[in-house]
Fold:
Amino acid sequence: MTYSSVNTIWVLLGAALVFFMQAGFSMCEAGFTRAKNTGNILMKNLMDFCIGTPAFWLVGFGIMFGSGTALFGRLDPLIMGDYSYILPAGVPLWAFAIFQTVFCATSATIVSGAMAERTKFSAYCIYSLCISLFIYPVSGHWIWGGGWLAALGFHDFAGSTCVHMVGGVCACIGAAILGPRIGKYDQKGKPHAILGHNLTVAALGVFILWFCWFGFNGASTVGMDSDALVESAGLVFFNTNLCAAVACCTTLVITWLRYRKPDVSMTYNAALAGLVGITAGCDAVSPIGAAVMGLVFGAVIVFSVEFFDKTAKIDDPVGAISVHGVCGALGTILTGLFATGVSTEKGVFYGGGFHFLGVQTLGVVSVAAYVAVIISVVFLILKKTVGLRAEPADEIQGLDVSEHGLLTAYAGFAMSPDTSSTDAEAAPSPIVVTGDTPPAEAVTVHRVPSFEEGRPKFTKVEIICKESRFESLKNAMTDLGITGMTVSHVLGCGQQKGRTEYYRGIAVEATLLPKVQVDIVVSKIPVRAVIETAKKVLYTGHIGDGKIFVYDVENVVKVRTGEEGYDALQDVE
Structure:
């Protein structure tokens, strides 16, 4: 066989980009879940690739691409057989093998997000082994390995069904068997929004995935040594990008209308929905078709996420079921409508009749049914043996600690002091006070008369206000002569019980809103002056302007000098 350096480099570049999608999935899933499970999410995405690679090498590749029957390839441990009949032109076996390996790992890692925050790590590793050994390879053989769907003319260019829907179906079954996270639904079945902890990381993950998708789809031409392949790659790139962009715009508008504000996380999910959906037919549809499909995916993703959350009661923290399962299946079927006939049969909208559409639909239904049955057996066996779900106490504490002994994935942001410094000169040694040392000798104290009857009265003014008004309040208090205040970020609500906001289509329990609490103790300055100044600064006439509470204070003590009473409130001369 004569190898083509251009084709080989193109396939290897695509393999590298698809591999890097693991980073995108890791960031996306970690950002959309809570901080206490970050390490667990990252570990599962790593192990999907590390377990899937040898499993696919040992068994999966032979099942998927071996010359067996229409339903099954062959067992070929270590890829020792002859695959020249199925290799792309000019591409060596091992280049093709690594290209297919990273696709297998992508299918496996989709499940991680839907089953996040409550799955035992050991059970997840066994699942990851199973999907790479025999679940993904069997259906992959039907589609890409010369199986019965390929013989019928089923078209899934880069894996909307073969990769994404397979992962999405596994995610749906796994999340359903697991049950929702603790606190996701109340006793009446009403869903509660559980916000992700780091939207910045999630957004980075989506952009990584979008970038890598050009390799996922573009390199699926598996060649660039002819004008036809170059033209096809250009169309694939353009359609991939266009569909995702239109899907985002569509979701932006829909969520803006439904929730009165554009939903950030849902719009990022729409980008992935568009990318997944166009993957099956990115080489077969025109840019107009890709744009229309983007409109469909952008609308479907919103209602699909809401359906699984509100109606089906399947808790999917990252929307993997809707993104990969629903939009993967839908994109494959829509190819039967929008295919122009360049690389496949013509779709319905281009005069091709309903045969191609029927084949696409049959392929989606048959693959979904096969995967659903097999993965249900796998998960139920795991549930009855090693256990599938983490203990409630572990789930509440977070899987980082219970599964990995990781106290926090954000050690630099921990509340405990950093004790890693070995520089003994960095800070002065504390004064050791024993029970035999009188306080007067341990700490220099300037003694003044204690608080007595007849001395000035002290009053604490506690002001609760909007965060946006704090700077104005602080400046006004300073101008009034206030020399000290204590400021805290708090959560609270008044009679209005907060306001309704939405996260991924679910109403957020916003009865406790972020506020600022300012505590001021005054004596010399009239209390009424503080109150009137605060009212003037904070007033907008709208609900939520804040509250002012006034308390009597018995005494004030300045720790540094030991001064008490009026003197303790005065500045140093």
